[in-house]
């Protein structure tokens, strides 16, 4: 406690040296199982600290080590090096086996986000059961995105930071094969040329020319 | 129609196809809808999905549906809807285009179906690649003993200058109030007025202004006069209630008069 | 996964180099839910590894870092460096309204300083709880003034600079007088005119003239 206020008072005058900030980041990131944004880290560090700069140093320090600093969306986390995964078999938590429908739905959401339920159904050619979406929501791999500005204003789904964390992705842009799929036009929402059998109950937003993935990657 | 399609297939190939269709049918519950079934059927063509023959695929699908009917299997409605559409597509693809007919051409529809199949296959591949990645909790691990961030709750009290001044004003004005006590010597009570009037009422044979009943010493000082007027008026009403006097006022603010009731 | 079996096969022939063993230890310790003994670590590592030796390297590597390898009984764990413990706390600040008793006490101190507890009680007409005064002292809105040169030499209270800062006052003399409070409509319970003596100037004007007020602002 006394140290606490002392540190903070000191910080009113000058930020701690960068190596000290790096130590702080290291301590904060090690202590957390969840990824932390630089903003969250800055909140816990003395005033005047620049976590972004210190992070560069920290990442470098852990290059090639048994654990490493990884980027997860706009957050950071320390994770074990993938090549050492075999040593940790005992730590493996038996994850619930995902159904094929759930896996496919997840992939469609990841690659087409933000995507409506009707769009998922069109791609899979089958209606998406409530349970599948609920399971993915519960696992916190997907969440609701913005509503589409189309008739009925349907909700959309997008993937979460936990999804990126789980699959070791820095961002949804790093999804494997994304560029190729886009180049092949397979991420376009191509309206069916009429008379095609329509799937599911939510046929109302099928005809829209959705911007799809592009929306996500513009920024 | 189905039989026609099989004519140009060799006998052995036909048997193989039928067997394949039967094995698919046994497994019909395993399909995730007609598109999934079409995708599975398309694999028998052993070509790139981009080069697939939609016409052949339509034939295969329709054969499958025929087979299911022959085996008296209940197919879900969407399989039958797809069958109807594919039959329609097939006819469009086989017949020369009718210039009078509107709507998409058979080629457009076939192209879209091929696109749908390719897209579904692409998503399946993506799903597989995704699941094969180094995954958290399986290949990559997070901190085993995360240290929880201790929440230190600090209460900060606030008050505004207004609170302060109101508080001070409250204390300082508290002393200013003492219990309200009437200044008795300026008061002529109703009881006093009633007693006084009872003694005098017998003489009021004619209408008399009630103000003439005000006692001595209560007519000049405004405060005393006000008190005596009020009590005399109240006493008059009391006497009316008792049936001893009548009371009248010719108009608003005119003198109130009373006289004995006989 | 192929890497997995490859590693294991390789290990049948020779132990991994020590820096590789150090990486392994680092990953294992990081991911473990509990401290591990060198025997337990050896069990998880390929044959021929020497966790005790690798541990020496690992400990050295983390010297002076934000986290460090510590011994827990006969086991090992990674822990936050003790001097950074304060980063593991997160303050949540809750703003609460000051109690009426505290506000009144504070107001009396502000208007009458330096003032003794007995004087406060006399003005408020009720006794002042220890907690109320302690709270104000803790908030650093009041502090002890000079002792009164009266029998018992009671301590006095005065308001602080923090108090003035909080209320946006340059000095306690800027506090409005009763007449001004009344003009501002802050005295809700206006006594009927004529019946009451003019206490407006009364008490508090005396106080303003009191030498006390100046005392605080001399320094």
The total count of strands of chain B amounts to 4
The first-level CATH class of the largest domain in chain A is given as Mainly Alpha
What order do the SSEs of chain A take from the amino end to the carboxyl end, as H and E?
A: HHEHHEEHEHHEEHHH
- Second-tier CATH architecture of the largest domain in chain A: Orthogonal Bundle
Number of strands of chain A: 6
Q: Given the structure, what is the number of helices of chain B? A: 9
Class by SSE composition of chain B: mainly alpha
Round the Cα radius of gyration of chain B to an integer and report it: 54 Å
Multimeric status of the protein: heterotrimer
What is the H level of CATH, i.e. the homologous superfamily of the largest domain in chain A? Winged helix-like DNA-binding domain superfamily/Winged helix DNA-binding domain
* Biggest sheet: strand arrangement of chain A: 1-3-2
Separation of termini of chain B?
125 Å
Biggest beta sheet summary of chain B: 3 strands, antiparallel
Strand content of chain A: 5-15%
Number of helices of chain A: 10
